Amino acid sequence: MSKIREMWDLTYDELVNKVNWPAWDELRNSTLLVLVASIIFAIIIYIIDSGFGFTTKTFYQFFK
Questions:
Q1: Distance between first and last Cα of the chain
Q2: Which pLDDT does position 44 carry in this prediction?
Q3: Which of these, 59, 36, 55, lies nearest to 47 by C-alpha position?
Q4: Which one-letter DSSP state was computed for residue 15?
Q5: SS3 string of 24-51?
Q6: CA–CA separation, 57 vs 63, rounded Å?
Q7: Domain-by-domain residue ranges, the chain?
Q8: Which of 16, 26, 55, 62 has a CB 3.0–4.6 Å from the CB of 22, allowing a cystine?
Q9: What is the H or E stretch that residue 58 is in?
Q10: What pLDDT is recorded for position 63?
Q11: In whole angstroms, what is the distance from residue 40 CA to residue 25 CA?
């Protein structure tokens, strides 16, 4: 049990004293950047997937 307590104390000490937490503005800007990038990547993947779907559908129609 003492090892668990020691690990918890070390973890708490590191999170409070050693971790460099971002400021609120920096956190908000980073979150916005990640959100926009995720939406852009999702749109790109959707376009690629739709293109491949159309291509394979057209290709397989030749063999009906």
A1: 69
A2: 98
A3: 55
A4: I
A5: HHHHHHHHHHHHHHHHHHHHHHHHHHHH
A6: 10
A7: 22-64
A8: 26
A9: helix 24-61
A10: 86
A11: 23
Q: Answer for the pair 22, 30: CB distance below 8 angstroms, yes or no.
A: yes
| pTM value surpassing 0.90 | no
Nearest one of 24, 8, 28 to 16, comparing CA atoms: 8
CA distance 10 to 48: 47
Tell me the HSE value of 5 on the side-chain side, using a 13 A CA sphere. Answer: 2
Report the pLDDT value the prediction gives residue 1, as an integer from 0 to 100.
85
Based on its alpha-carbon atoms, the radius of gyration of the chain, rounded to whole angstroms, reads: 25
Q: Which residues contact 30 (CB under 8 A, 6 or more apart)?
A: 22
